[in-house]
Every structure is written in structure tokens, then in C-alpha cells.
Amino acid sequence: MVVESIFIELSIIIITAVILISIARLLKQPMIIAYIVTGIILSPAFFNVIKSTPLNNTLSEIGVAVLLFTVGLNLNPKIIKEVGKVSIITGIGQILFTAIIGYLIIMFLGFNKITSLYLSIALTFSSTVIITKLLSDKGDLHKLYGKIAIGFLIVQDFIAIIALMVVSSFSNGNTLHFVAPTFVKGAALLIGLFSLGYIIIPRITKPIAKSSEFMLLFSLGWCLVIATLFELFGFSIEIGALLAGITLSFSPYRYDIISKLKPIRDFFIFLFFIWIGSQLVFADITKYTPTIIILSLFILIGNPLIMMILMGALKYKKRTGFLTGLVVAQISEFSHILIALGVKIGHIQSDMISLITVIGLITITGSSYFVIYGDKIYSYLSKYLSIFERKSTTEEEKRKEKKYEIILFGAHRVGHDILDAFKHKKNKLLIVDYNPEVIERLTERKFNCIYGDISDIDLLDEINLCDAKMVISTVPDKETNMLFIKRVKLCNPKAIILTVANSVRDALDLYDKGVTYVITPKFIGGKHISEKIKTYQFDLEKFIEEQTEHKRHLRTLGE
Questions:
Q1: Is the dihedral of CA 103, 169, 242, 52 positive or negative?
Q2: Burial of 507 per CB tally in 10 Å (0-12, 13-18, 19+)
Q3: What is the mean pLDDT of the chain?
Q4: How many other CB atoms sit within 10 Å of the CB of residue 85?
Q5: Res 394: pLDDT
Q6: Does residue 78 register a pLDDT over 80?
Q7: Under 8 Å CB-to-CB from 492, ≥6 apart: which residues?
Q8: pTM of the full predicted structure?
Q9: Which of 266, 243, 260 is nearest to 208 (CA)?
Q10: Contact, 331 vs 299, CB < 8 A?
Q11: What is the pLDDT of residue 519?
Q12: What are the start-end ranges of the E strands in 338-464?
């Protein structure tokens, strides 16, 4: 019975995965590696358990669609506006430099021009699915480098789709004139989709949100319908799902949708990585061993270097550039598809599939460790990375050297409300934010501003935290705030420290670490604390009294 064989197959996959994941967790290794190894072990190359390819393909496609849909839910137009410029520049720049340098390396290794062209283009694309999963697990999707990474990966996906469309035209006997109508269709789809998202979605989700079950089904339906629509129009399911998420991000209920989709997303994405492992094709390619080693090292080391140079040229700090660079240290599922198409058309030899497969396995594994342990790796290499960072201008250096009474990290939303308390203390206030538009707007209003990310340790060391009477972080990430608190307490134990937390548990943990007052937007907003700052000024005892009452209230809510 087909149903029974599929059931047994899925049971064996899950049992094997559970065993390997347990081993991976015991050894403190990334779970994504356990997923891929499960697929390899159960693939036709070894135990030949995974046989129902159509089913596995469908399940893995659903997993990718749901994952990118949830990413889209976090990418509302405001965030895209924040990192859009840098994402386009780095996304296109990295592809161009990797393709050119890769082509020269491959030609030097003795491959012909057509093969070199295919392989060099295949090496340029990084995997949106893998990196999104790793950044999500690490909790870094909302950080500056995470937002930039997702932005340029999306740009690369669009370019990859164009490349696949061009190559596919040769296999279908078409000429390249078919590409223009495709772009027209794509533009029409985008206009229609975003019109729906901006005008219709917020209105129809309001009555749907009354039932959590209905909201979940509606969200999944929206994701799959839009993804299917894009596939029917000649685009990829991945792009359709991502855009479906972005349009639904206009809804005020997007956070609720994300939380409900997470378990479903995790299960299907687990099957996707199993499928990747099962698709790896191994053949006798020992003659390509030097090529595999050289190209794998180029992806693992060369790609991050290219990205760090680009980020440095755009005036980003070396830490942001380094962590962003680690994201591109692997090849994409698009790389395998491109090479497979080239073989099908007859442009390149079939053993190129095995070659790109092994490079894929090596780089996916390596980049998984890079992303997960990126902060630790950076701490060892930090002193050698200054060459990738542009020197500050004289004006910026003066701002950093000057002593400020108040330092505010994050001037958006809560921070914007808090600024009201400092209208008459502009000369004594320093604002740190990673949104270029926020910095530009506040600079025009004569505020002292520095462009940067609070999670950047080097930036915290450069800013004069030791002489500040009040230090405020409106960033809701607990781990980032823990690091920030430690730095302030180390040199300035008497400073009034204000932070933001999105949960009762996080707020109480921050109080335990020495925060003077924790702003909880769900209960107490920026306007409230702005009034308190105006009233208390730098009176530490008044803030301690407020803290005692707030902690009592939070503990009551927690119980």
C-alpha cells in the first residue's frame, strides 16, 4: 500500500532525526546539521529509505513557503525602507565580485569558459532558507546585520530567478525576448498584491481575528494561494510566499499570526532540510578534489571578505560587516538548480552536479557554525578587522569624545516619545540609532547623533558611557540589554539605566541585573516614562521608588 509505505517512511525519518538531533544537542552542534545528515543517511546513496520523492518535494516546498511567509510578516515596508539601500548595494555587489573572481579561479583550474561561467554564477547565490532558519534560531532576525542579511538575500533570490529564467529559455528553444513580458507580469502582480495588502488586508483581518483558528487557516491559505499564483505566472513559490507575508504585515495581528505559525513552520522546514540531505548526489569525483577544496574555501572565506569590504565602504562598523559577511559563506538551492539545468541543456558535463553537491554540503555545514558562533569568532578576530572599517570623520570623533549626561540607544517608537523629555537638553544628549533616516531627521533638528548598533561591542567601547548620568536603551532584546548593562555598570555604577522589555519575565530579569527602571510597552509606554524623566530628572532615589512599585506590579501579573 502506498499510504502505508509513506507512513513507514515518515516514521523512520522522524525516529532517525530524533536520534541524530539528540546526539547533536549532546555535542552542542547545530540541529540543522543533524537534519541534513539524516537526509544523507536515508538517501538512495546509503540506506535508500527516502523513496516517495513527489511527497517529500511537496512537503519541503510547503516548509520553505511557510518559513519565508513568516519572514515576510516581519518585513513590513518600514523595515525594508531602513535597510533597502544597503541590501541592494551589497546583494548586487557581492554577486558581481564573487562571479568575476570565481570565474577567474575556475578558468585557472582548467575548466572551459561555459563551465566556468555556470559554476561562477552558481557560487554567487546564498541560501535564504538556511540563513533565515539559523538567524531565527539565534534570535538575530531583528538585529541590524540580520535585517541587512535578509534584505540582500531577497535581492539575490530575484537575481537567481532571472538567471534561471534565462537558462530555461534555452532549454525550451525560446529566445530572450520572452523575459520582458515576464517582467510586465511580475510588476502587475506586485502592484495588485501590495494594493490588496495596504487597502484590503487590514480590514478583512479584523473580523477574522475574533477566531484564532480562523486566523491561522486564513494566514496559511493566503500564503499558499499567493505562492501558487506566482508559480503559475512563471515565478518561484519562495518569492510568492515572501511577498504574501510582506502584504499581510500591514495587518495589526501579524505578531499573533507569527506565533501560531511557528510550530507548523518548524515541522515543515525540518522536512525541507531532510530533503536537501537526501538529494545530495555522490559520484567518483576524486579528480575534482583540489577544485572542491579551493572553491569551498573561496565561498567560506572569500565571500565574507567581499561582503566586509562592501559593508566597510558603506561606513558600517566592522562587527556588523563581519557578521553580515558570515551569512554569505554557503551556496544556495538555486545553485544546484542552475547546474542541473545546464546539464539538461547540454552546456556542461553531468559530473558538475556531484561537484556542486559536495561544495554545497561543505559550505552549508561550515556557514552553519559561522553564523551560530559568529559572536565568539568575532571576539578572536576583532583586532584584525579594523582594515574593513572606514575611519570616523573629525565631526564624528568630536561627538564620541564629548561627555554627555544622557545617552539614548534607539530613537524610534518608544525612543521618540522619550525624546520629548530632552527638548531643552540637546547639547547634553547623544542619540545612537541604526536607521539612517532617523539619524538624518534628528541631525536636522540639531540633536547629537551617531549611526550604530547597541549590540556592537566596539561601538559601546568608543562611546563615553562612564560619564553619563542616564543611559537609556529602547531595544527590546534581553540579551543585547544584558551586555549593555554590564558595560555601563563596569565603569559607571551610579548611572540611571533605563531599558525596554516586552515580557514580564524579561523585565524582572533586567531588574535583577541592576536596571534602574524597565519600560514595558504593553503596560507602560514611552510617554509615561517621558513624564517621569521630566519630573525626576537625575534623582536616582525617585527612580528606585518607582522601580519598587513597578516590580511589585510585574510580579502580580506574573503570578
A1: negative
A2: buried
A3: 81
A4: 12
A5: 47
A6: no
A7: 465, 466, 467, 468, 471
A8: 0.72
A9: 260
A10: yes
A11: 85
A12: 406-409, 429-433, 448-451
**DSSP-based helix, strand, coil % in the chain, nearest 5:** 70, 5, 25
Residue with C-alpha cell 510566499?
Answer: 241
- Amino acid identity, residue 373? Y
CATH class of the region 394-558: alpha beta
Phi–psi pair at 494, nearest 5 degrees: -90, 0
Q: Is pLDDT of 373 > 80?
A: yes
Backbone angles phi, psi at 432, to 5 degrees: -120, 125
pLDDT value at position 3? 43
- Contact criterion met (CB below 8 Å) for 430 and 406: yes
Cell digits for 275? 530533503
Please give the share of the chain, as a percent, with pLDDT higher than 70: 88
Task: Assign 53 a pLDDT band (cuts: 50, 70, 90).
Answer: low
Domain(s) labelled CATH 3.40.50.720 in the chain stretch across: 394-558
For cell 501579524, name the residue. Answer: 254
Q: Which residues contact 367 (CB under 8 A, 6 or more apart)?
A: 130, 131, 300, 326, 327, 329, 330
Estimate to the nearest angstrom the gap between the alpha carbon of 552 and the chain centroid. Answer: 37
1 pLDDT band, cuts 50/70/90, is very low
8 Å CB contact between 448 and 468 = no
Instruction: Decide the pairing of beta strands 406-409 and 429-433.
Output: parallel
SS3 264: helix
DSSP assignments along 378-410, one per residue: HHHHGGG-GGGSPPPPHHHHHHHHS--SEEEE-
For residue 409, give the amino acid letter. Answer: F
Which pLDDT does position 295 carry in this prediction?
A: 95
- Would you say 102 and 119 are in contact if contact means Cβ atoms under 8 Å apart? yes
Grid cell locating 203? 480590514
Per-residue pLDDT tens digits for 289-305: 899 999 999 999 999 99
Set of cell numbers at residue 442: 534628528
> What are the b/e assignments for 336-357, b being 16+ CB within 10 Å?
bbbbbbbbeeebbeeebbbbbb
Whether residue 466 has pLDDT greater than 90:
no
Ranges for all domains in the chain classified under CATH 1.20.1530.20: 52-388
Whose cell is 546526539? That residue is: 23
Q: Which CATH number fits domain 52-388: 1.10.150.130, 3.10.310.10, 1.20.1530.20, 3.30.420.40?
A: 1.20.1530.20
